[in-house]
Write a structure and sequence with these properties.
By secondary structure, this protein is an alpha+beta fold. It is built from 5 helices and 4 strands, in the order ββββααααα.
Length: 135
């Protein structure tokens, strides 16, 4: 017995003559395409939240698995694994709000300030001391 097709959740279909009108009544609906979350209001908040979450998890994993290596290998691992996650599709999502930029920057701050010998330094001096391509 074939199942009756229903409209996707959050959509209303009405038939007027030959046309079908679909109206979304979900204000926070979003779609994921090529790893980028696109919301109906075109704000990058959901995408940035996902990116920061993934990068933070990867940073935690790398920090614990590479804890005994020197800082230059850790920087290399950061630029190879974490930074591409943070930079993926920034052209599309283009974080323009200060809070979104700060959330992305927080992952890098966590990496730099978590290194021994860098904890007590101001953030900008810690970046210079690391001679890192993080900026």
């Amino acid at each position: 017995m074939p199942r009756k097709k229903t409209a996707p959740q959050g959509y209303k279909e009405t038939a007027t003559g030959k046309e079908i009108i679909r109206e979304s009544n979900i204000t926070g609906a979003s779609e994921k395409d090529l790893g980028v979350i696109l919301s109906l209001d075109l704000k990058p908040e959901k995408h940035i939240s996902l990116v920061v979450h993934k990068a933070s998890n990867t940073l935690w994993l790398l920090s614990h698995s590479l804890r005994h290596l020197d800082i230059h290998l850790k920087i290399s691992a950061y630029t190879s694994y974490i930074r591409p996650q943070l930079e993926y599709a920034t052209v599309i999502s283009s974080p323009y709000l200060k809070k979104d930029i700060d959330r992305i920057e927080q992952v890098q701050k966590c990496f730099v300030k978590g290194r021994e010998g860098y904890r007590n330094l101001p953030y900008d001096k810690a970046l210079k001391k690391a001679h890192s391509p993080l900026t």
